[in-house]
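Today's session is about reading a structure prediction critically. Students often jump straight to the picture, but the first step is always the sequence itself: look for stretches that repeat, for charged clusters, for runs of hydrophobic residues. Only then move on to the predicted structure, which in these notes is written as discrete structure tokens rather than atom positions. Here is the chain we will use throughout the hour.
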Amino acid sequence: MDKSLSKAERTRRFIIETTAPIFNTKGYEGTSMSDITEATGLTKGSIYGNFENKEAVALAAFDHNYAIIKKTITDKIAQSQTYHDKLMVYATVYHSFTRRSGFVKGGCPILNTAVEADDTNPLLCAKAASAIQSWRNAIMNLIKAGVASGEFKQGLDHEQIALSIIALIEGGVMISKVTNTPANLDIVLKTVAALIGQLKK
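Below is the predicted structure for this chain, in token form.
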């Protein structure tokens, strides 16, 4: 924990880091205040002293989980040399998330939140939608840069490709989870790899 933070900031961060895997595993509706107090060892009054309500904790927990994934992807993209390899980071990261401990417990927070909150919690749904928009834009920018560098073909539909990659990955994650068969995700990610491969000149 960062010693430069105030006691209140450290407590708030502790609550977020402790409850983030719970919300991502059990969902907003499935996570009770008793789950939060039991996990943190704090009283309900302490929780509400740092957050307005359970929803505020859930929103902060989503941001925390999403930031972990985003940093992992950003770091790996920065280490990749070609635009093909940069795009392939998305496939490799999501391939590993079901097999790596310490990534984000409970799976992809974007998918989990979108599925649960689409009709029930506008604020959480907006968080998931914003994350998907950011993801789409990041992929589109990589494709555009790949075209500009001469690595990818001209005339590509950047948005169509970006949304297709996202849909395939999240669909593969969902199928692998509900069937409890990680190999199903592997099959879908081969399609993602093939799609990215087709962008090359």
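Discussion point for the tutorial: The mean pLDDT is 92.
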